[in-house]
Amino acid sequence: MKHTVNFALIGCGRVSVNHLDAIKNAPHANLVAVCDIDIKKAESIAKENNCSFYSDYITMLESENIDVCSILTPSGYHAQIGCEVAKRGVNVLCEKPIDVTREKADMLIKCCKDNNVKLGCIFQRRTYDAAIKTKEAVEKGLLGKVTLADAYLKYYRDAEYYASGDWRGTLALDGGALMNQSIHGIDMINWIMGGIESVDADCQTYAWNIEAEDTAVIRVKYKNGAMGVIKVLPLHIRDLKQYLQFMEQREVSFLAIKVFICGILKTNQSLFLKLQTPWAA
To answer: Per the confidence metrics, is the pTM higher than 0.70?
Structure first.
C-alpha cells in the first residue's frame, strides 16, 4: 500500500484554488488542514474540503500530522514561514518566488537542508510540452548554435488588481513585475538556456501607483555565451501573448522559433524541415 501524503495550506487567497485542485486530483494526497489570518476564509475552505482550519500556522503545525505544507502567503513571508515549517520536519512547497530577497531565499534553502526536508517552488510552466521540447532541442543542438534568446512578457494587470491587497506592489512583501508576474517566463528562459551569467537592467514604475517596478528591459548574457533581452510590462490590455524567442546561426542565415508560454508551440516550419527533428510534430 502506498503512503498517503498529508498536505496543509498556509494562506487561503486566490492561488489556493489551484493547490486545492491539485491535491484533490493527485493520487495518495490528502488535505488535513488550512490556515489563514482571515479565519472566515480558512473556515470556508475547510468546510468545502472536509479538513481542519486555523488562524495561526504554528498551532496548525503543532496540532496536525503534516507531510507537506504549501506556503501561499504574500511573498515576503515565504522564508520566515517556510523555516518554521522545516524546523518541524515538514516538507515545504512554496509558491513563487521563494521570497523577495536573495538573503531570505538562501535562508530558507539552508533551513530546509539543515532540517533534512524537501523544498519545492512552483514553476509549473517547466512541465509544458512546448517548454520541454524546446529545452531538449537547445540541449541536443537541434537548433544549431543559439546566439539570442529573448522573452517578451506582457501581462494584463489593472488598478483593481493592485488595490486588492495592501501588500501588492510593495518591495517588502510582493516585488514588482519581475518578481511577481514575469517570474515564470524568466525562470523558463533561464532554465532552457542553462542559466544566466550576468544582467544589465533598467526598471521603472510608469503605469501604476506602486512601490516596485511595473516596467523593465533587461539585457542578459547566458552561461553558454548567448545573449538576450527580457521585456516586462503588466499592461491594461487583455489577451496579450507572452513568448520566448530563440535565434540560431546556421551558415549566414538566421532563423527564429517563437514559443508561446501558454503551451502552444509555434515555429518556423522550414526550420523543422531542414533539421528533420522528431520533436517538430
So the answer is: yes
